[in-house]
Amino acid sequence: MGYLDEEVKRLQSIIDSIEGRVRDLETKQFGSSSKKTTDEIRMLLIGPPGAGKGTQAPKIKEKFNCCHLATGDMLRSQVAKKTTLGREAKKIMDQGGLVSDDIVIGMIKEELDNNPECKGGFILDGFPRTVPQAEGLDAMLKSRNQTLQHAVELQIDDALLVARITGRLVHPASGRSYHTAFNPPKVAMTDDITGEPLVQRSDDNAEALKKRLATYHKQTTPVVSYYKNTGIWKAVDASQEPGQVWNSLLAIFDNDKAKAEAAGSGILNKLAGRS
Ligand code: AMP
Fold first, then answer.
1. Where, in this chain's numbering, is AMP bound (predicted)?
2. Residue owning the nearest CA to atom 15 of ligand 1
3. Which positions make up the binding site?
């Protein structure tokens, strides 16, 4: 092997080592390498009932191949099974109140520990709803050396929610939701995918909504301030069409990716400047 070949080999090994170091630095800065930022997601959606959390979360799940954890769906599944927890929870849910922090924190922990889909990250929908729940989540993630990437608030005026909620129909098994006027199923009262019947939630009426909104403003608005203080809060105008809301979410993810890439090249630029 001539001098030139030797030199190329030596330089290649230096480049490989620098690339490895850059990946490590990116991992330290973002919790994952720039490549994985698009593959792995750890985020939550905050918003009042009817803001569109349940419409957008399955799309995020599909894009990132992560788990979708909706505490409301988990509680409704307990109600349907008529477990002790389900019976207790139903009373609270129908009154528009909140189930105890310990119960919902325990449900999320159980999923993060055991649901294989959560290996690709998670999208939390309807959790955390109180500051103690947000603190519980932080503690859970800290013990796994993980951080949240986004806390997205779906912002919408209360006045727009009555029509959304009173016309909502859901497919209990999947959590898919429809609307009698804005997003009707292909066949009346039937899920497009499975052909199974759709139902109207017992708390999706004007009276319960009033209480759910009051609970939201009192208990969950402080959660928005909590995440504003951490720097991961982002707002999306949820009065837009679902497709536009989705585009706003994609813009958040793209911005994240661009930042990670810029940081990567920033590190390379710093290295280049030093050599
Ligand atoms: P949702 O499907 O998110 O609208 O939740 C329906 C109901 O379940 C709420 O009105 C609460 O009574 C209860 N619930 C859901 N998530 C939580 C939570 N994180 N903390 C306390 N209660 C919850």
1. 71, 76, 97-99, 126-129, 133, 201, 212
2. 72
3. 50-55, 71, 76, 97-99, 126-129, 133, 168, 177-178, 201, 212, 240
Phi, psi for residue 151 in degrees, rounded to 5: -120, 100
pLDDT tens-place values along the chain, 275 residues long: 577 777 766 666 665 555 546 555 554 554 443 333 456 899 999 999 999 999 999 999 999 999 999 999 999 999 999 999 999 999 999 999 999 999 999 999 999 999 999 998 999 999 999 999 999 999 999 999 999 999 999 999 999 999 999 999 999 988 889 999 999 999 999 999 999 999 999 999 999 999 999 999 999 999 999 999 999 999 999 999 999 999 999 999 988 777 767 766 555 455 544 43
Of the candidates 256, 227, 267, 193, which has an alpha carbon nearest to the alpha carbon of residue 36?
256
Q: For residue 67, list its beta bridge partners.
A: 122
DSSP category for residue 192? T
The DSSP output letter for 186 is S
3-state class of 62 per DSSP? helix
Is residue 21 helix, strand or coil? helix
β-pairing verdict for 177-179 and 168-170: antiparallel
CA–CA dist 266, 93 (Å, integer): 50
Q: Give the residue ranges of the annotated binding site for ATP.
A: 50-55, 168, 177-178, 240
**Global confidence as pTM:** 0.81
